[in-house]
Structure formats: structure tokens, C-alpha cells
Predict the structure.
Amino acid sequence: MTLTQLEYTLAVAEEGNFTQAAEKCFVTQPTLSMQVQKLEEELGVKLFNRNTKPIALTPIGKKILIQAKTIVEEAKRMDDIVSMEKGEVKGDFNLGIIPTVMPTLLPLFLNNFIKKYPKVKLNIEELTTEAIVEKLTQGKLDAGIAATPLDNPRLIEKPLYYEPFVGYTPKSHPLAKLEKLTLEDVEKIDVLVLEDGHCFRDHVLKLCQTTRISKSFDLKSGSFETLIHLANEGMGMTLLPYLQTQNLSNDNKENLRHFESPEPAREISIIFTKSQLKLPVIEVLSESIEGIIRGAIKFDNIRLITPN
């Protein structure tokens, strides 16, 4: 029995197909099939029912795959222990980022990071906060970037930056005449917000101290661009995270209104489990992001808004 055989078998179980599993493992399908068959012969049992589509695990196969996954994960952890002891920055690193952060943060640091740390392979997924927490606890992610605090005793939260909220008020909107917004201003009106499932929605509702969302239509969108277009069409105003405002057209930037100091802001952190062993990568990733953000966000007096 070898780790390679176990890894190939896990790939087949995940893909439900030998050909797709071989592509995932970067080997030919006959090579992968032969290794899985050798494992079955050594164990004296059939791990897969090959007559089903997709290929399914047999009852004994399900039990063995649980143990196989543990063995493979523990083997990887040994590599992580050695890397951490040596302070080495290398290896695969699985990172989840929430949708309201990923499009604006990733272009700021990713190119510089991969050039500076070529031995690190970042595997990045766009996920909701709930999905990030679930995958972290399952060991499927090494770290996540999300709005905090989450108050989860199983996780460590390391703040990276504080991102202010900015009002988007088209010229036809009553608030457009104001140079600066106050929290009281946005408490009095309906606000266009993202759909349920986005933590930024919860931040906005907490900031406004209201559940006043436009009731004239039911909006299910996770796109700030959609909110901006609707606002431009006279459907109301919205709130945007600061980094999102940096990519607007010059015309749309004229519709931005900052809040009076202290400006409301959200906390963005890198989060990971207390048992995480890839700390050297987490450390340099944090430093890279913090270094970039210091030049992108220059606000000293903020008021932290938490959705909890």
C-alpha cells in the first residue's frame, strides 16, 4: 500500500470517474486504474462499483476511504511540520475569500506574492463566510479571508485591514446634495443591498440600524455593479466597500459620498484553525496584503461595524 495509491483512490471517489480522476492527478487513466486495482488486490476487497455512473464506493470502500483520507492528510501534515520548523515558505496552500473582497483585493497582491514566493502554490476559491468556516474545520482550506469578528472558538482571526463604507448617491438622490454622510442620514431612507448570504448585507443593515430595504421589488443579486446600475436608474442609493469604489468610472465616482469621521468600516481578517501548521505561508501572506493595503486605504479614524 502506498500514499500514491491512496491519493488516486481518493481522486476516483471525489470525481466518480477514472478518466477525470487521472486528469486531476496528472497521470494517464491506465496508470491510475492499475494503482487502484493493486490496492484492491492487496486489501482483498472491491472499493468501487464500476457498473454505476458515476462510479460509486462499495460499503467497505466507504469505510476504507475514511481511513485513507486520514492517512493522506496526516502525511501532508508531516511535511507541514518540517516546513514550519525550518521556516520554509512553500507548498500547496488552499485559500478561501469572500465574494465582496476577492475581486478588489486579489488584483492588489496576487501578482507580487507569486513572484516573491514562487514555491507556494495558491489554490484560491471564492466562498461565502459560512462555506469558508465549514471548509476550514473540515481541513479543506488552510486559511480564509473574511469579514470579522466571527466569534468562533475554533478559529484564529488576524485582522489585515479596516475598509470604510462609502455611500453611492446619484445626482437625483436627496443625499447627493450633502458633502458628507452621517449614520442618521442613511437611517431615514431605503437602501439597495446585496442578497441574503453576503456578510456585507448584514454590515449595511447593522450600520443603518434598520431593515429598510426597497420593498418595491425583490432583488437577489450578489453584484455591486447591479446595485450601482439600479441606483443610476433612480431606484435608490447603496453603500459600497471602499476598495470597490476605486474601480468606478470618473462619472460614477462623482456620486460617491464619504461618511463624517469616524467613518464606519468593516474588519477584514485572515482566519485559520488553531491546529494550522502552514503558519509560515500565513505569515508572509498577511504581510503581503498588509503592505499593499497600507498604500490603498488611508483612513485613521474609523468606527468598526460588526454584523453580530
About this structure: The chain is about 45% helix and 20% strand. The longest strand covers residues 155-168. Residues 109 and 291 are 9 Å apart (CA to CA).
